[in-house]
Amino acid sequence: MKGNYKFLLLAFLIAFASCSFTSKKFDDNPDKDKLLIQLITYVLDNGHFNPQDINDSFSANVFEDYLNQLDPFKRYFYESDIKEFEAFKTQLDDQLKDYDVAFFNLTHERLLKRIEESKALYAEILEKPFDFTKHENYTADYEKLTYVKNKREMKERWRQQLKFSTIANYDDAISQRDADLNSNTLPESVFSAQNEKSTKDDKKTLVELEKEAREATKRSLDELYDFIDDRQRKDWFAVYINAIVEEFDPHTFYFAPEDKDRFDVAMSGNFEGIGARLQKKMDAIVVNEIISGGPAWRANELEVGDQIIKVRQSDEEKPVNVVGMRLDDAIKLIKGPKGTTVVLTLKKVDGTIEDISITRDIVELEETYAKSSTVIKDDKKFGVINLPKFYVDFENYNKRNAASDIKQEIIRLKEEGVEGLVLDLRNNGGGSLQTVVDIAGLFIEEGPVVQVKEAGQPKEVLKDKDKSIVWDGPLVILVNELSASASEILAAAMQDYKRAIVIGSKQTYGKGTVQNVLDLNRLVRNNSNGDLGALKFTTQKFYRVNGGSTQLEGVKSDVVVPDRYSYIDIGEKDQENPLPWDKIDAVDYEVWGNYFDYDTTIEKSKARMAANEQLKLIDDNAKWVKKIRDRESYSLNYDSYKKEMELNEEEAKRFEKLSEYKTNLTFSSLPYEVQMMGEDSILKEKRDRWHKSLAKDVYIEEALNVLHDLKMTYAIKNKVAEVKN
Description:
By secondary structure, the chain is α+β, with helices and mostly antiparallel strands. The chain contains 22 helices and 24 strands. The strands form six sheets. A seven-stranded mixed sheet has the order 22-18-17-14-13-12-24, with helices on both faces. Strands 5, 6, 7, 8, 9 and 10 form a six-stranded antiparallel sheet that branches. The model is unreliable at about 1-20, about 185-200 and about 720-725 (pLDDT under 50).
């Protein structure tokens, strides 16, 4: 870290929020690409937790990663292309220092040329039938593939990849035909000669099914290439930029303007717009979901399947035709500030054309937010809270965030008289660091929650300073391999305090770093280049109150249970360029002393889990999934392929019991949600689905067993009136 520029963090070090990085300002540069490289290399050199030496080794790594991202299946570039590119392999560091984009220009132009060539290639190959009687194998280990030398080899590579895609479609088509014929079979006593003739006429030949399979493969590729054709030069340049910045660590990332908008929505759980999810199908912009509670849902005129043809703002006379437009560009026209109106010209599902007006509003993505349920087990009522992520509003922390929502859910659960609480952090990838501190404070009287260290600076201890405890009863935290970052901070703090029992995977994801997002536009004087996007970069590492890092090692569960991810490489340690594990001094903290059978409860849970037949089956399933994922070679002979698939299906049958598992538990929504469901059938459907999944969840079942076993040294304060404020 260079001493001339001090990195200024926001209060409480809000991870993922914009930060004031430096007083340095850059002059506007007419060449946007060069300006971006200048900004990003400066920020990373001065602000990253572990700045890299931009040297020949760094250059070679960027070179390899970039080409792998452009052409992972090695079906665009030729060996001659790569040899031409290799002249730059150890020069990219020098180009970065000179803000030179010659290498990108060369690869970008060549890629577009090869993509155009591939369009004609796949169309030509898919015009002719595949011979599924021929004995040949296809390898799916793309990393071991070499680049082809000539057009003949390129055509053969495409042929094999297309045949592999088509054989799966072919098998599906045969299975569907046979299933349809079986469903049309009548009892023998009423089966007439006419019915028999009709069934034979309806039976498609293998030649027809093979043709349909090829057509399905072509449709999929046509849709893929529509997406590729929509990508502009700036999109490909973002790929190049990210190949550079990801050499620093896996969580440093450049957001192009549209990507930054999506990131903001994902982290805050809301946006201003009409409340519909859109997708592009060929040239059409199609509605594929109406978001419950949003403006479009309230207006009840827009339907799933409607095509948006034109968009007009209320203060404009002429609409803009969006047919064939990039999806991101169309979305920009449709979204807008709260209170404004947009007029959409629709082609309805029935083919009619219709104009509708929708007044934009704040759209909340319900699936982002915390939700809770009650359940009765052995005459005791318990609460379950699911937290999908640690969300926060970037502009105003005092608006809706994960901490305030969790507090509210706990208060509501206390009103229902719950005697124990499960906090489900499975698949929670993290989010705002400040919300972690605030949530931890709901369960402890006061004290340190996490230690944060910036390179070359003294550590900072983030503490809960509020002496009130919102929940002082038994607490279980559920985690898995995808619980990361902020989830790991909270689980680690509760584990170190012995405040909660952590149940889940052998270890969590292992992301022990803090990122901040810097709006690059703030660094440029008189910017005339349009939106420059933002850079998310690693500024700090965080440590448990006991001094250990969660980096790479994650949080080790008190009670380890197998799950579907047990044998799959998905953690931080399996990523490229992760920062190392280390340890710093512990801080003083007072262990929660209000469980008198903490260790005994853990041992009882371990014993139950070891004897649980459902978990044994889950473990076997995880091993089988690992074997399937690691497979590299497939037969392109249909008889052999079919036998392999049948063996897989036969083996899979033994795991069907996993979905049949049921507890005798019944989960219920809280009164405020029941009232909302009266006006929102979509919310009711979502909650019913969640409750059904909870009733089949062996991990939830064991969490409730643990809550039942945990004994407090005092009566639980489960009445709202007793909460200190």
